[in-house]
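Example (one chain per record):
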Amino acid sequence: YHMDKIMLQFFTDSETLGVFVLPQRIMALFMVLPAALTTILSPVFSEFYNKNQFSRIRVLSQKAVRIISIYLLPLFMIMFVLSSFILESVFGPDSNRSSEIIKIMIITTYINAVRYIYSIQLISTGYVGWAFWINFQALIINTILNLIFIPNNIFGITMFGWGATGAAIATLISIFITFLIQIFAVYSITQTIFYF
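Predicted structure:
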């Protein structure tokens, strides 16, 4: 998310940056449970991997995704439907400009929360290099998409000019691609498949 803020500040103005940052800060609160779960699961995944107990990794991954989904999906569905009302009630009428962005970030945050479970498997099983390169490619994809989606033009070449919405879409796409790559990587190591 930090690259988005840097590029928004460079290509737009402080007001557009604020429209983006408000929902971003709200969504960060929902990452507490996934972060806590990965902290707990990391040594457990490592132990299971060292004992070649891949089936236990798979079962634990499924349970973790289920817990995250049970916790986040109902809240996110309510927030998605009532985003304008919630933003205006809590932050005032000017915050309504962030309602479209928070909807995109709700989807991104759910994917990211589930992605944590697969990401920690790479690290816990000793594939730190893979985890680094997967996250590095996410940064590259996000940067390229931000360059396409945020500004009106670059060096005279017309871009989409979507501003804060473009930054949110770029993050969603890069997180989703990263998630798919991590699922494939984890499957190749522990045969863990995506569970919803």
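Caption: DSSP finds eight helices and two strands in the chain.
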